[in-house]
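Co-fold these.
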Amino acid sequence: MSAFSLGGPGPGCSVSRVRRLLAGELPDVERGRLEEHLGGCERCQATRRELEEERRAVESALPFPAFASGVAERLAAPGPDRRAGSPAALRRFAPLALAASLALAVALPLVLRMSQHGEPEGTRLKGGGAAITVFVADAAGARALANGEAVPENARLRVSLAPAGRRQMAVALLDRDGPTLLYAGPASASPLPEAFEWTGASQGTILAVLADAPLDVGALLARLARGGAGAAAPPGQAAEVVTFSLTRRSRP
Amino acid sequence: MARFAVITGGRAEARSPSPSPALAEVGLLEGLYLRHAGAVFGRCRWLLRDEEAAKDATQEVFARALRALPEFREAASPSTWLVRIATHHCLNELRSGRARWKEEAVRLAELRRDDGIAPERRELVRVLIARADEEEQEVAIMYYVDELTQAEIAAATGKSLPTVRKRLRGFLAAARAALAEAFPDLALPEGDDL
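Predicted complex below.
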């Protein structure tokens, strides 16, 4: 007869703690301690790989537009377990349902185009899996902006990144007036803290440089000013560059 | 310099004539998706063993989180809170087909006997959980799969530490009985007690 162990938390090892680390939930001291432990613990390294694989699996099986649309549908649908407070929740998230539907409407043609012609130029480059989503909000509501789609006048834009495991990122806006830094610091799988209104004319590019080591922001802006978006990648440093094109409909 | 104007906090100022909350709501959901959807989907896929059912369950879990947003925001660990909701939802789904779930230990044992395929640890935990009582199942998953300590489980569930320990002992007894029945050559180590 052989012994079988059910597992359970070990000394310093815990699936939930690694999960919290990846979700950015751990306070600084605990994060430092766990990262040090991870460096020498094969069991926790395997856990991290497994959790990263789960994230890739959901991004493949249930991309955000389909996910958001499904969540919005569930929020809007009456059900047997809805509490009396639900109408307030529905009112609160009614814009989400609309925005998610619009996001899906934007995403679907994009997916179809990708299936016919391969990956569209500009949304995702260099194969690392990082991606930019740009949300636009104006008087008509909020939705995901398609890459290259004209930006409405007076609309607010908010950039959201999927950093695909990279630790650091810099996000810049580049148009004919030059580059402006939107964010530099730890890479986070969430929308940037600030929204902005793009007041430029003609064309612009939002670009994100993602790397594992901190990026030299001054050098990045200098390269962008000199060589445009094509010069974003830092020389001699492993990095991924993702871009998103903005256009402005010409004024009559 | 590129021409743009920052809107602090990602929202229009209060004096703006037409602030739209929709952008913030989509941003909130996308943030939750990017941080937690993998873990929730992973839990649902592991328990339900069906990708389509796992996708439905994942969306249901996030819809529940949005309905209970104040409670979710107050949770000490959002990921633990969400994974717990996912576990609870999937256990309910499985219980509706309880007989089939309980038979999986036997099928796994047959597979092992016929093809010599050893059960993977978490798969075996999954089928053993089917044999435990309802109150023991969630605690067993938190301890053996999420690897929360007994004190962390007590804090997350609001149960007392002795109750958590009692539930785990109940699960272990059920697991030993199930192993004796379906996997007579496997046994939990003698010291594997609580």
